[in-house]
Design a protein that fits this description.
This protein has 423 residues and is of the alpha+beta class. Helix 4 runs parallel beside helix 6. The chain is elongated.
Length: 423
């Protein structure tokens, strides 16, 4: 049975009611206060205070304060005016019960509305947070795309500049060769013309003898006889002169010469072509049951192990033609392209492998780690360190205990930080 608290003091103004309720001594529990527009309840088990107020109050702005063994209430009236009493007098039990139940229902509805409002506010905050995250991700994606575009434009400009320099140098060399050739041809023509137009000058003795014979009595027959014997030869018939030019070589200075490296590269290319042709001939002669992707994959793996990367690429190419849904073929071919410095092809094959390795499951974790590392390595060798670091971090998310990948990622971060400081 509750013990009802009957003692209280109150006073009022036109706008508010001031209620003072003395607390019982040695109270063991905290006071619980329940207040609505026209109902006030204070519970301090086993003590209880209940009041059905004379008129409605503003329960939201009203306050309660415990001080010096009393509870002080400040209850603001909804309508200004003076009350005749604090509580409704002469109310029967049914009316009091109705007022209590009505107060509880209103309190429950109010609590429900507040909960709904909190839920809506929480959803709005969540939506705002999601939109903010999406905007940040979009800004980051645009930043990465801009960096890629800037890097691509930079490489394109450097390539165009190099091509222009090569074209200009080759044009200058060609002009010099044509000018020298023209000068030599002109010189030969001049020499030929001088030989053809140069007159024949007879010697002095012959000229004098001829003059003496013309003065004698029988000079006519003697002149005719000598003329026949000393007659000039006929002009030579026209012909074609064949001219051979010695090739002109402009050797590179010894300190800048790369002849040895070029010869070694040509030798390796020739060996690779011979190996590829031999492997192609071998693959064409395979039995029908051996023409399957798994056999070609094993063949490519053996070629890769022996360092024959071009032949391995060819084997993987044939396997891809037979079945283009095996991610291991693209993954292995990306490794070959890395060895051959075909970096863009390595990126394409690694991306294709990641595309096929979906959905991500524990069985393909190792393959996804390899694909991210190989694509990240290709990006770093192209000096696209930001993209390379993203792939290494993706690999670390899959295999966080891999110390080798962690060390490589830390090196890439150091390079990026050093580059940003230099810039």
């Amino acid at each position: 049975m509750p013990v009802w608290l009957r003692e209280y003091r109150w006073r009022q103004s036109a706008a508010a009611v001031f209620l003072s309720l003395p607390l019982p001594p040695l109270r063991a529990t905290a006071a619980s206060i329940f207040c609505t527009e026209q109902y006030l309840k204070v519970s301090i088990p086993p003590f209880l205070f209940e009041a059905v107020l004379y008129a409605p109050i503003d329960d939201i702005n009203s306050t309660a304060k415990i001080e010096n063994g009393n509870i002080f209430f400040t209850l603001y009236k909804k309508e200004t005016g003076m009350w005749d009493s604090l509580m409704i007098e002469n109310a029967n039990k049914e009316q009091l019960q109705y007022l209590r139940e009505n107060a509880v229902l209103k309190a429950q509805e109010k609590a429900k509305e507040e909960a709904e409002a909190k839920k809506v506010t929480k959803q709005e905050h969540k939506k705002y947070t999601l939109e903010a995250m999406m905007k940040l991700e979009e800004a980051e994606r645009k930043r990465i795309e801009n960096l890629k575009e800037q890097e691509r434009q930079k490489v394109t400009r450097e390539l165009e500049l190099w091509k222009n320099e090569q074209t200009y140098t080759e044009g200058q060399k060609r002009i010099q060769r044509e000018e020298k050739l023209r000068q030599e041809v002109e010189q030969l023509k001049e020499n030929k013309k001088e030989k053809i137009t140069k007159p024949t000058i007879p010697n002095e003795g012959t000229s004098k003898t001829t003059v003496k014979h013309t003065k004698g009595p029988s000079s006519s027959s003697m002149f005719s006889e000598n003329l026949k014997e000393e007659q000039l030869p006929a002009p030579r018939s026209a012909g074609t002169i064949k001219i051979n030019f010695t090739s002109r070589v402009f050797p590179t200075a010894l300190r800048e010469s790369r002849v040895a490296e070029e010869e070694e590269w040509l030798h390796k290319q020739a060996e690779a072509r011979r190996t590829i042709n031999d492997d192609l001939a071998e693959l064409k002669d395979l039995k029908e049951e051996e023409k399957n992707p798994d056999w070609l994959k094993d063949k490519g793996n053996k070629m890769f192990a022996t360092g024959n990367y071009l032949a391995a690429v060819n084997a993987y190419n044939l396997a891809v033609r037979l079945n283009n849904k095996l991610p291991v073929l693209y993954l292995n071919r990306a490794a070959c392209h890395l060895k051959l410095r075909n970096l863009h092809k390595a990126i394409e094959d690694s991306s294709k492998a990641l595309e096929l390795l979906t959905p991500p499951v524990p069985d393909n974790e190792n393959a996804r780690v390899k694909a991210h590392v190989r694509r990240g390595t290709a990006f770093c060798q192209l000096e696209l360190y930001a993209e390379g670091l993203q792939d290494y971090e993706a690999a670390l998310k899959i295999d966080p205990k891999n110390s080798t990948i962690e060390k490589d990622a830390e090196k890439i971060r150091s390079i990026i930080q050093g580059t940003s400081q230099d810039l």
